[in-house]
Amino acid sequence: MAASGLRAALLKIHLWVGMAAALFLFALGLSGALLTFEDIIDPALDARAWYVKPQGTPLKLTQITQAIRQAFPQSRIEELVLPQKPDDTVKIIVLQSNGRDVGILVNPYTGEIIGRSDQLFRPMLLIRDFHTHLLIPRRSSHMVLTIAACCLLVLAVTGIVLWWPRKIFKLRGGRSHNLVFDLHQMLGLWSSACVLLFALTGIAIGFEDQVNRWAFAVSHMQPAPWPRPNPPAAGVPSLSPDELLAKAESIAPGARPIVLVLGDSPNGPVLVIMEFPEDHVGRTRVILNRYTGDVLQFDNTRAMPVALKYARLWNKEIHTGDIFGWPTRILASIFSLAVAALAVTGPWIWWNRNRAQRSRTTAAVTA
């Protein structure tokens, strides 16, 4: 009796949490599946702006930035996204006089400007903004997304408790609503491990600040504040982008630079984001004095304690499927689609049952 009462309670929890979160989970599952291929879809839509034909030795970054300053004399270069393959363009983020950032895509072999981010068709940028911020202010979106991840966790756990293992390979024929019901249960059980990972890592992303504080506490470390170097002496020039990259590469041998962040302050430090071969997300950071090249801060993923490495690196890689490259990215895409499918079949089951119950009630009244 107690077991049947617990099962009835879990069914109600599973039903109402699923109904409340169905729309969000469908949209998040579908957008997550698409984001797995973000680095393929956007460039494929306008390949001429993203890819170039290799032509010998690339230009120095100093030459490229000089060309950008001549083309945009009223703008300030804030960031350089460096090519990772011979046919990649250089993406340069400039702050315009109107206060807006724009990305300039440059041929690294000729210095030719071949595209602007505000003139490209980039649907994945909108999808990413939806998936990570719901197209609303950051604080509100984090709260909603964290609640959605908690709902997904509840659905995964209650689904496993309710139907494991007897429904894992049970598929009845006959009426369509029986088929949908069995598919919902089977798909939920087959994808339960990945759905649990999506939920748990999503919750950790929602509580990112708290997770980072926990990681520092467990590692017996204190987070380092953003460095503020002393102003340079009058007339001292800033080091060139090439010199800054060379300095960063000497500090983190074996890591390749991904992004050079010059920032919007002429006296502020420079950030070089780097990636070791075993990493799938750039989390190694070298912060330099732009005038002297002195190292102000060095965050090395190879030397990070396990707790910090999980908080800063592995949690996001697990959530996106980047953890083991393309095999896990494909799995993440498949099971993201499974979340979207479950968010459709769940309400469908509820609708069919309600309709059948109304029909029986009407028949009983008529009789």
- Detail the poorly predicted runs: none
**Based on helices, strands and strand pairing, what is the structural class?**
alpha+beta
Shape: elongated
The amount of helix comes to 55-70%
Radius of gyration: 26 Å
How much of the residues is beta strand, in percent? 5-15%
Number of contiguous helices: 12
List SSEs in N-to-C order. HHHHEEEEHHHHHHEEEEHH
Mean pLDDT: 90
State the distance separating the first and last CA atoms.
Answer: 34 Å
Biggest sheet character: 8 strands, antiparallel
Q: What's the β-strand tally?
A: 8
Protein described:
The chain has 367 residues and is an alpha+beta fold. It contains 12 helices and 8 strands. The chain has an 8-stranded antiparallel beta sheet. Strand 2 and strand 3 form a beta hairpin. The longest helix has 41 residues, at 326-366. The mean pLDDT is 90.
Q: How is the topology of this model organized?
A:
Elements: H1 2-35, H2 38-45, H3 47-50, H4 61-71, E1 76-81, E2 90-95, E3 101-106, E4 113-116, H5 123-133, H6 138-163, H7 176-190, H8 192-206, H9 208-218, H10 241-251, E5 256-261, E6 270-275, E7 284-288, E8 295-299, H11 306-320, H12 326-366
Antiparallel strand pairs: 1-2, 1-5, 2-3, 3-4, 5-6, 6-7, 7-8
Helix pairs in contact: 1-5, 1-6, 1-12, 6-8, 7-12, 8-9, 8-11, 9-11
Summarize the structure.
With 367 residues, this protein is α+β, with helices and mostly antiparallel strands.
